[in-house]
Design a protein that fits this description.
The complex is a heterodimer of chains A (139) and B (466). Chain A is mainly α and 139 residues long. In chain A, 54% of the residues lie in helices and 6% in strands. Chain A has three domains: 32 residues; 44 residues, no CATH class; 37 residues. In chain A, β1 and β2 form a beta hairpin. The termini of chain A are close together. The chains are: A mainly alpha (139), B mainly alpha (466).
């Protein structure tokens, strides 16, 4: 017969502290990397040949060599952009920023190890805890 | 069962109310997910082009078929509040259950944040587009929306999900009306697929990358089993509600893709700051359609946020009840019989993310938590069948071809992690860092407050091998 485990009673202060720790983890690990723009989508600027721009201090761009054709837009696409309220310049700011899928093998390996390690740790610890649960429930 | 300290200080046992039928289960599942047709899926177009998004929609449909098969078998056997969280306690162990509970909470809370951000921003966009009035700030509308939904959830689950049923049905009708309004029988008149569709802008690597947001077409449908404890007849209502929900979503996803990429250039649809592609598609066609899709998008966002508050709070409540979290969260309101503390606690988190973080990144957090939950399911299935082989316990449903669905699901999950890595690698690592640290916190600190034997509540025989 396995002795029944009697957990300690957590004080109100302890409960508040645990809640704060969880909230802090959410904001440090999830919120801050995004808020500080550390973890952003990996888009790159890719200008068509012969196209360039000068950016003013307020962020507005003055383009040279730009046309709907060099942006790869046919007349139908051009018409739809215009119906959506976009000029050629504002459309260019969207079209010239594709994703960068350059494969970084070290980065992939590191990410894979992190995910795999997480699951291995979790399953190993869960197994240990599960044995205690089963022993107390059935013995 | 929950211990609720009432005014006189005497502990009193209070249960969640059993009031929900199949229509509520459908509304809970589809209500949460249908918003994925109005916003968010379009980022799959950005990652892989229009065809890439379509292929991703089909491939991820296969992932969800596997999820539904596995979930149906286990949920029909473990009908308890918390869904996959309750399953993990019985099949894998407390730390896994703690993580699964957090996957559910974060997936739904981030989805809720995305929903209310869309609702608020669409009010701003709609005012600019249709009223020619001075620009309005979107933030107060976001907070107002969240406050009303929080109150509804605080007040009671039956009223909440009845509201959901009505607005979800209206939102779905707006997609169907849009589809017929663009005259799909007359290509070239309004729909311009011939001119707007391009090949695969990033090749097949882009198709894999698109799997990331392909999840958004369906994310949350498994939430139907969150309400298992509040359903009048789980054996009938859960499978019926879930299956009709999947069919609804498959139809809506197909219509959505077809209309949006037939009216809008793919670069516009897939842009990170594009908020509501169906609304924009309608805007290009006519003002009445624009108004219809404005209402449809707002309704879908509200229905989704409503269901998310319901689901996230129930998972958080379940963990509080089991002492995986401070026990204070495991309280039921003495009058409304809702997990009121869990509801109120999660609201500010959703509000802060909604107000401060761009939509595509909020959605990515929701997707990642969902993906981790789907990775748990093959493990869950393997352990479930190993510990209680067929015939050892009574199952409401036995899924065919085991272990094929589990193997396919695990393979698709691994591929989707790679898809998220393409373009959102740092966010993936941030999320993993969070789950690793909270797992260490639980294993080495929080677990001491957990009653061991109470984690196993089903009337099953001892698992094989233990």
């Amino acid at each position: 017969m396995v002795a029944k485990y009697v957990p300690p009673v957590q004080s109100r202060a302890g409960q508040i502290f645990d809640t704060i720790v969880l909230l802090a983890l959410v904001f440090i690990a999830l919120f801050l990397p995004l808020w500080l723009s550390i973890a952003v989508p990996s888009r790159v600027e890719k200008l068509p040949e012969g196209v360039s721009y000068v950016a003013a201090e307020d962020g507005t761009r003055t383009w040279t060599g730009l046309s709907w054709e060099v942006l790869g837009q046919n007349p139908t696409m051009q018409a739809q952009w215009e119906k959506l309220g976009h000029s050629m310049d504002s459309a260019a700011e969207i079209i010239t920023q594709p994703f960068d899928y350059t494969i970084d093998y070290l980065g992939i390996a590191l990410t894979g190890v992190v995910i795999l390690g997480y699951f291995i740790f979790m399953l190993a610890m869960s197994e240990r805890e599960y044995k205690q649960v089963i022993a107390e429930k059935f013995d | 069962m929950t211990d609720q300290v009432v005014a006189q200080g005497q502990p009193k046992s209070i249960n969640l109310l059993k009031v929900l039928g199949p229509a509520h289960v459908w509304a809970l599942g589809v209500g949460i997910v249908l918003v994925g047709e109005f916003m968010g899926w379009n980022y799959a177009v950005g990652k892989g082009g229009a065809y890439g998004a379509l292929i991703a929609c089909w491939v991820i449909g296969l992932l969800y078929t596997c999820v539904a098969m596995i979930d149906s078998e286990i949920t029909s056997t473990v009908a308890a509040a918390g869904g996959q969280y309750a399953q993990a306690k019985h099949t894998v162990g407390p730390l896994m259950a703690f993580n699964v509970g957090l996957y559910l909470v974060l997936a739904y809370t981030m989805l809720e944040a995305a929903d209310i951000q869309v609702a608020g921003q669409l009010v701003q966009i709609g005012a600019l587009d249709m009223l020619a009035s001075a620009p309005v700030n979107w933030e107060p509308y976001t907070i107002l929306c969240l406050a009303i939904l929080a109150w509804l959830n605080y007040r009671g689950v039956f009223m909440t999900l009845t509201v959901n049923f009505v607005i979800t049905a209206a939102a779905f009708a707006s997609i169907v009306l849009l589809f017929f309004a663009v005259k799909p029988w007359s290509p070239g008149e309004i729909l311009q697929h011939q001119e707007l569709l391009t090949g695969l802008p990033y090749g097949w690597l882009g198709v894999i990358a698109a799997l990331h947001f392909g999840i958004w077409f369906y994310l949350g449908i498994e939430g139907t089993c969150q309400a298992a404890e509040e359903v009048r007849s789980p054996g009938r209502a859960l499978p019926l509600g879930t299956m009709s929900g999947m069919i609804t979503l498959l139809i809506a996803a197909a219509l959505t893709w077809y209309v949006a990429v037939g009216v809008l250039p793919w670069e516009y649809v897939g842009w990170d700051l594009e908020l509501a592609p169906l609304y924009d598609a309608a805007k290009v066609v006519s003002l009445p359609l624009q108004i219809l899709l404005f209402v449809g998008t707002i309704f879908s966002a509200i229905a989704s946020a409503n269901g998310c508050i319901n689901d996230a709070s129930r998972a958080w409540f379940s963990m509080g009840r089991d002492r995986y979290l401070p026990a204070w969260f495991g309280a039921v309101h003495p009058r409304y019989r809702t997990p009121f503390r869990a509801i109120i606690f999660l609201i500010p988190i959703a509000a802060i993310f909604a107000l401060q973080i761009p939509l595509a990144q909020i959605i990515t957090f929701s997707i990642l938590s969902g993906l981790l939950g789907y990775t748990f399911m093959p493990i869950n299935m393997y352990k479930f069948r190993k510990k209680w082989p067929l015939g050892s316990i009574r199952r409401g449903y036995v899924h065919p071809f085991h272990p094929l669905p589990a193997v396919v699901l695990l393979t698709l999950c691994i591929t989707t992690y790679f898809a998220v890595y393409l373009g959102y690698g740092r966010q993936l690592l941030a999320m993993m860092a969070f789950y690793i640290v909270v797992s260490l916190w639980f294993a080495f600190h929080r677990y001491k407050y957990v009653r061991r034997g109470d984690q196993f509540t089903m009337a099953w025989p001892r698992p094989r091998g233990y």
